[in-house]
Each structure stands twice: as structure tokens, then as C-alpha cells.
Amino acid sequence: MNPVELVLSRRLRMTPFETRVREQGVKSYTVYNHMVLPVNFSSTLEEYLHLCEHVQLWDVAAERQVEVVGPDALELVELITPRHIAPCEVGQCVYAPLADEEGLVINDPIIIRLAHDRFWISIADSDVLLWVKGIAWGRGLNVRVFEPDVSPLAVQGPKADDVMADLLGESVRDIKFFRFIETTIANTDVVLARSGWSGQGGFEIYLQKSADGVALWDAVWEAGQKHHIRPGAPNLIERLETGLKSYGSDMTQEDSVLECAFERYLHLDKPVPYMAKDAIEKQLEQGVKRRLSNVMIESSPLPPLRGLWDVCCDGQLVGQVSSCAYSPKYEANLAFAMLSQEVSNAGSQLTLMVDGQEYPATVKDDRWKS
Amino acid sequence: MNPVELVLSRRLRMTPFETRVREQGVKSYTVYNHMVLPVNFSSTLEEYLHLCEHVQLWDVAAERQVEVVGPDALELVELITPRHIAPCEVGQCVYAPLADEEGLVINDPIIIRLAHDRFWISIADSDVLLWVKGIAWGRGLNVRVFEPDVSPLAVQGPKADDVMADLLGESVRDIKFFRFIETTIANTDVVLARSGWSGQGGFEIYLQKSADGVALWDAVWEAGQKHHIRPGAPNLIERLETGLKSYGSDMTQEDSVLECAFERYLHLDKPVPYMAKDAIEKQLEQGVKRRLSNVMIESSPLPPLRGLWDVCCDGQLVGQVSSCAYSPKYEANLAFAMLSQEVSNAGSQLTLMVDGQEYPATVKDDRWKS
Questions:
Q1: Which residues make beta-bridge pairs with B203?
Q2: Residues forming beta bridges with residue A335, ordered by sequence position
Q3: List of residues 6+ apart from B110 with CB closer than 8 A
Q4: pLDDT in tens, A250-261
Q5: Which CATH number fits the domain that encloses residue A302?
């Protein structure tokens, strides 16, 4: 299949780092939250190898924020997720899948608590802003809900701490995982969080003024020179190895939080109301029919996956693979698949169908073990 | 600026017509409602010339539907738009900009009334589904809101009637503008509406079963052979000439329905509640500061516009151009621009800034006259 060109227009919003990204020779984009998101500068494999050894600068401005602020902000944020948010301290971030009244996943954001009554919902690719605005208006809550001028720039990789320490001093090394500080870089205010969409460590720098995007990029870029910094992007191989599922690809609005195996992030008995409560209790009673799972295929690299591949067991269709990449670390193809509950336990032996070919596949736990 | 490749993944949904679109040699895409939308097969100018003379088949599956059905469906649909929907008959479609409690535009869909208590909101590029679901839940309304498996295929151009008459009989010529019938083509149920995103006439065929997409495409394609049918897409030149504004490009969630000059489609005094009522009344009282306008630039063709171009008057910035194309019909560049109220009347003489060059520009009415 031939590659196709992306036609740019105002509707696909540019990012504050766009000038530098183009200068660095971006080769391909995806579109995410009505904004461009760089995908490749060289190749996915080259970028993977560099990310695991050095440090990269990622334009992830497309991870937009939904700000919820006001007297009823906490009540509203509690309503939209089965995770208990009250215990999240100011200065902390939590991964909090959002679920509607049917228990279906609306998004899987990080929620950042900026103040007692002020949150950023740092979203995957769906218009959470509209959903939260609708709920707030419908319930008559006293909050303001809007998209602020906030664009994350990620510094990811094992040398990310060195880069940020050179830039801001040694104390940044003390920022704990999923905690943030407020500081300035290149004279612009930023929220600096230890987080990011890889398992290689690093930070997300939340720029709060688009006009300062190039200055922020340049400051980090310069500090990164002696640490072999390169431009990069969320990497398919790395995210499969780390087990990061992608909203829209590995799970959609058709899937419930239980089917997505999100229990460990949720507090289903939390002591405050949330929209999905009744639906989730019913699903727990009836049992879940499908389960998002990790699947390993020990073969040479499979061709690129674009849509879905079928997974079978004893000749019966039991699910579909939604993401797949060949992992140098495991010397196998790693995949995420939504599978029938009965075959979703680690150890299940299944068959993956790719272009009419059959491949033996094994269900693994979410760390690719057992 | 070099073209960039669009990386396809499951998150950017494919359409039911995708196989045929690829076979026809699609060159470029945009992304719209988390789905791919073809932009070009040859060039915008070639496709414009063909569209104005013959007939084209457009994969516009990305115009997704939000179905609202149930006892409170009409109440909900009335809430979200300042247009009065009760007078819309079953079998009719209406253009109905959606506005939130601040009077800001959330989307500018066609609303299709399928039954007294059943509507399709045929949307531009924003997750109206989430907004409407949030409002419905927040207000405790007795409705079901979901995205059905419905994908429009458009037949546009002066020969569209001939194609559809060959396919379905002469009676299709009697379907009035913005009216629809329910029928079958290639053994699949469709809603056939006289509508579409061009001023060249034609139909939108709402496929209701993705699996039948290729069969539907093939049936229309075959009937179109003797009428010089070609694949196409919403065309930049044609939409400028026809005056069709695009949500996300020419207006965004930052703009009010009054700023977008939508009054002619609205019934601000409608006798039922709607969310934007108080905000709009206040804006009417205070006066609107900006106005979406048509601007003509009589020069040779301008370079492609990607973001925004500034518009000045007496050296002061008075607005920005969001869409522009050179029109063979008017032998001038046509543009849409959000302009300060005081310079937005037809006849105003302004200056457009493009890459440091100045061009005289004239505000026109919405039919490019006076």
C-alpha cells in the first residue's frame, strides 16, 4: 500500500514547537485531538534504539488539557472517573480512565491536581472537553471547563534527568514519579512533571504560552546537546514493550473499563458518586466477556498492522489484535488484543491470522512474563 | 514546505468505501471525526473543473452521525441548537449550528429527522456525541445517544440526478432540496437525501451497514459510467465559490453563532428552551465585535494557505483569513475571514498580508456580490 499525504489546514491545529519539528525533518504525522502529532523523523527502529540509550525531545502538544476549575471541580472530576481523586494531592498526577454511565471508556487521561479546586485532564484522542462541559451544564455545577493554552513537550529517555539537571539544577532529580513542580525555563512558566508516554523515564514540560514554544524547545535542545538529544515521538516498539495501551487503537468507546483491565487504577467502591458505578457493578455481577490482553508471537517481524488482525482458537474467532511491533528486547512480535475472557489468561495458546498466514501466539501477563 | 506522510493506524478509522478509494489512487487525506477523509485524487483544480461539469462520487463517511432517539429526543435536540427543530418534518433535513451556554459554536451539522422521536445529527469535525451524551445524562433525559453504523457516500455534480435516476428510476428527480427518502441500492438499505457539501447539486446516500460499502460504491459507480463519473472529495475552490464555511477552519469553538453570521439559520426567539439563549441575548444587546466575512483578492493565484493570514486596515490588524482559493469563475482569490465588525460590511477595502506582501482585498456579501 502506498503512503498517502496528509493535507494540512487550520482545522488540523499546528503546535507551538512546529517550526523546530519541521526543521528537524519530521517525516510523518498522525492527527490527535484535532492537532498534528509527529510520528517519525527517521525510522521507528532507529528511534527506539536511540530512545532506550539516550534522550529525546517530543512534541506532544496534541496531548491537550481540559481545565476544570471552581467550587464544584472535585465533584465533577470524581463523577467522570471510577478512580478516587480526592486522595490525589496538589502537586500530584494520576492515571484515571474516564467512564460513562454504561461503564464505557471515554478517554484514559492523566489528571493533574494544580490546586484544591483546579485540575488539568491531560487527554488522549477524544473531545473530553465537550463531554465534561455537557455534564457540568446538565448538572448545573459551579465550575469553569475550558481548554487552556497548555502544550506538553516531553523529554524522554535514560539521560532525561541529566538534561533537566543541567538546565534547572540537581534538585529536579528529586521529583518523584507522577509528581510535578512549577518553575520557569527560558523565562516561561512551566509545569514540570515526571511522567511521559514511555517506560524510559523522563519528564513532561507543560508550556503555558504558545508564543514561547520555540524558546522552550531551544533551551532543552541546547541542554541536551552533550547528552545526544534527538527529536522523537511516542514509539510503537517501546510502547508495546512497556505495555502502554493507546486509546482509539487498543480500546475505544465500545469497550468497558473492566474489559480494558483497568481495575488496578480504579476504586470501584470509592465513597463519592461516579457515573459508571451502577453499570460497573452490574458488569462485575454478570462477568466480563472480553479482556484486553498482551499477546506474543515468536516469529520474524510481521508486516505493519493498519487495522485489526483476527485471533483464533481451535478455528473459532476469539478476538483481534489492535497494535503490534517486533521487539528487539524480547526477540518476538508483541501485540495487544481484545480477547474472549475464556482465552485471555496468560499461557493460552492461540493462532494469529495475518494476510492468510497462521502464526502461533501466546497470551502473556502485562509485563510479558509467564 | 515538504509534504508529510499520514501514518495510518486503527485510531484513524477507515471507511466502508476505503478499498475502492485506494484503487482509484487517492493521493491525500485529511482526518475528520477520527476517520480518514480523502482530499485529492488528481489536483484540486482538475477536480473542481470536473465537478462543475459532470458528476463525482465522494467518500464522506467521516461525516459521522449522532443518533438521538427516545421520548425526550426532540427536547434534547432543541436544547443544543438555537434553530427551532419542531417544525422540521419527518423526511426533512435542516442545517442547525449547535451552540453551548456561552453561545459558542460546538459544530454545524445537518439534523435529519427520521421519525418524530428519532434524529441523526450529521456532524462536522468535533465529538458532538460526547457533548450530547453529557447533557442527556446531566439532565436525566430519557433518550439514547450513540453513533450508528451509518456512512454517507455523496454523489455531487450537475449529472448526479441522471446517475441516480438510472439507478433508482425517474422519481428520484422529484426529491426536493434537504428532503430524503428511504430506499435500497444494491440490496442495502439507504437514506437518500438531496444534500451535499457543494453547490453543484446532488445527493448524499447514507449507508447503514459498513459491510455493504463496496457494493453500494460499485452500484453508483457503474450507473455513473456513461455520465463521466470520477472519484472526488469536498473541493476547496468549489466551497469558496459556493460560500461553504468549514467548522474547525473558518470557525471554531472560540466563535459565537452571531460572530459566524448564522442568524438566517436560527430562530433566536423559538418557543422552547435552548442552552445558548441567555448568552445570545446578551451578545445581541452588547453588539458583536467580529463577523465571519467573504473577502475577494483580485490578483494572480495566492500560495496555498495553511494556517491564517493577517488582514489589515489603515495599518491596524482587523482580522485573519482562514480559507482561500483562486476561483476560475470569479478570476480572483476568494477567502473567508473573521473580521472586526466595523470593517466587515460589503465594500470595505482592506489589505491582506501574505509572506510579507500586501494585497488589496474587498469585503463582499456572502454571494460574492456588491
A1: B155
A2: A295, A324
A3: B93, B94, B95, B96, B121, B122, B178, B195
A4: 999 999 999 999
A5: 2.40.30.110
**B325 and B369 inside one domain:** yes
Cα B197–chain centre separation: 6
In a domain, B10, yes or no: no
Q: Which of B14, B102, B130, B247 to mutate to test the interface with A (most CBs of A within 10 A)?
A: B130
Among A59, A66, A130, A250, the strongest candidate for a mutation testing the B interface, having the largest count of B CBs within 10 A, is A130
Report the sign of the C-alpha dihedral through residues B71, B74, B78, B81, in that order: positive
Q: How far apart are CA A337 and CA A353, in angstroms?
A: 13
In this predicted model, what pLDDT tens digit does every residue of A48-102 receive, in sequence order?
999 999 999 999 999 999 999 999 999 999 999 999 999 999 999 999 999 999 9
Query: Using CB atoms, which residue from B3, B10, B134 is nearest to A135?
Result: B134
pLDDT per position as a tens digit, B148-207: 999 999 999 999 999 999 999 999 999 999 999 999 999 999 999 999 999 999 999 999
Domain CATH code at residue B47: 3.30.1360.120
Of A26, A135, A322, the CB nearest to B10: A322
Domain tally, chain A? 2
Q: Same domain, yes or no, for B209 and B184? A: yes
- pLDDT per position as a tens digit, A117-174: 999 999 999 999 999 999 999 999 999 999 999 999 999 999 999 999 999 999 999 9
Predicted complex ipTM: 0.97
**Which range marks the domain in which residue A328 is found?**
289-370
What value does the mean pLDDT of chain B take? 97
What are the two backbone dihedrals, phi and then psi, of residue B5, each rounded to the nearest 5 degrees? Answer: -85, 145
Instruction: Please give the Cα distance from A106 to A98 (Å, whole number).
Output: 5
Q: Which of A2, A6, A143, A145 to probe by mutation at the B interface, max B CB count within 10 Å? A: A6
Task: Judge whether B334 and B325 are in contact, CB under 8 Å.
Answer: yes
Domain assignment present for residue B92? The answer is: yes
A308/B130 touch (CB, cutoff 8 Å), yes or no: no
Of A40, A100, A131, the CB nearest to B131: A131
Question: Residue B109 carries which side chain, given as an amino acid letter?
Answer: P
| B100 and B236 fall within a common domain | no
Given an 8 Å threshold on Cβ–Cβ distance, is B306 in contact with A4? no
Radius of gyration for the alpha carbons in chain A, expressed in angstroms and rounded: 21
CB environment A97-115: b (16+ within 10 A), e (fewer): bbbbebbbbbbbbbbbbbe
Q: Specify whether the CB–CB gap between A324 and A240 falls below 8 A.
A: yes
Whole-number Å distance between alpha carbons of A331 and A326: 7
pLDDT above 80 (res B264): yes
Strand-pairing partners, residue A189, are: A184
CB distance A70 to A154 below 8 Å: no
B158 and B45 share one domain: yes
Q: Is residue A355 exposed (0-12), middle (13-18) or buried (19+ Cβ within 10 Å)?
A: exposed
Let me know whether A155 and A35 are in one domain: yes
3-state SS of B274-294 is CCCHHHHHHHHHHCCCEEEEE
Give the CA distances from residue B302 to residues B306, B327, B360, in Å, rounded to whole numbers and listed in that order: 12, 11, 12
Classified as helix, coil or strand, B80 is helix
pTM, full prediction: 0.97
Q: Are B179 and B193 in contact (CB under 8 A)?
A: yes
Q: What is the pLDDT of residues A308-330, one digit of tens each?
A: 999 999 999 999 999 999 999 99
Q: Which residue has the cell 448538572?
A: A139
Helix, strand, coil fractions of chain B, as percent rounded to 5: 25, 35, 40
